[in-house]
Design goal:
By secondary structure, the protein is α/β, with parallel strands linked by helices. It has two domains: about 170 residues, Aconitase, domain 4; about 30 residues. The protein contains eight helices and seven strands. Strands 4-3-2-1-5-6-7 form a seven-stranded mixed β-sheet, with helices on both faces. Strand 3, helix 4 and strand 4 form a beta-alpha-beta unit. The termini are far apart.
């Protein structure tokens, strides 16, 4: 997992509340066995019409937001089913940060484990960011996990809370496997001791 400290990036405005995980990554794409490639299907049903024609007015199809790594959304983001694929799709597409007033609890956990920083700001602050992202060309935000702040060049500044353990993992780039591997020597020693004990017992 890539460490996260500070990111300055274009901000893409998704001015919708209650965005559920079936919209983030529709169920027909959950049969894949890989954890990569889901970015192609992010917001699939909103990005294109049933005929396959791109929806020009949808934010991810707007060239103004090409390369954005920060997504600003409405309240209750990623509600619905608990699929971890939602975090995989956002990450694979290139988003490193999602800013919203509230997030679904299970997604909040899944996102952190996949290197995505979630910043909870007030609805008034989100409204300001959404408006700025829509109206100011090349609008960028800076998200500092170390300082737990969201800022821009227009004078906006807001703080967000983050669990200390999750902050540590994100800054160090440690997912669940990485956390386990930090204890590799102790695990190897235990395994060796366990194997030797089994051999002695067999005698």
């Amino acid at each position: 997992m890539e460490p996260f400290r500070t990111l300055t990036s274009l901000a893409a405005p998704l001015d919708r509340a209650n965005v559920d995980t079936d919209q983030i990554i529709p169920k027909q794409f959950l049969k894949r066995i890989e954890r990569t490639g889901y970015g192609d299907f992010l917001f699939f049903d909103w990005r294109q019409r049933p005929t396959g024609e791109p929806v020009a007015e949808f934010v991810l199809n707007d060239p103004r937001y090409k390369g954005a790594q920060i997504l600003v959304a409405g309240k209750n983001f990623a509600c619905g089913s608990s699929r971890e694929h939602a975090a995989w799709a956002l990450s694979d597409y290139g988003f490193r940060v999602v800013i919203a007033p509230t997030f679904a609890d299970i997604f909040f956990s899944n996102a952190g484990k996949n290197g995505i920083v979630l910043a909870r700001l007030t609805e008034d602050e989100i409204a300001q960011l959404l408006n700025n992202a829509k109206t100011i060309p090349n609008y960028k935000l800076t998200v500092s996990l170390e300082e737990q702040t969201v800022t821009d060049s227009q004078g906006f500044r807001a703080s967000f809370d983050v669990d200390p353990f999750r902050k540590f993992c994100l800054i160090e780039g440690l997912d669940d496997i990485g956390l386990t591997l930090r204890h590799a020597e102790a695990l190897d020693a235990f395994e060796k001791q366990h194997d030797n004990a089994g051999w002695l017992k067999a005698k």
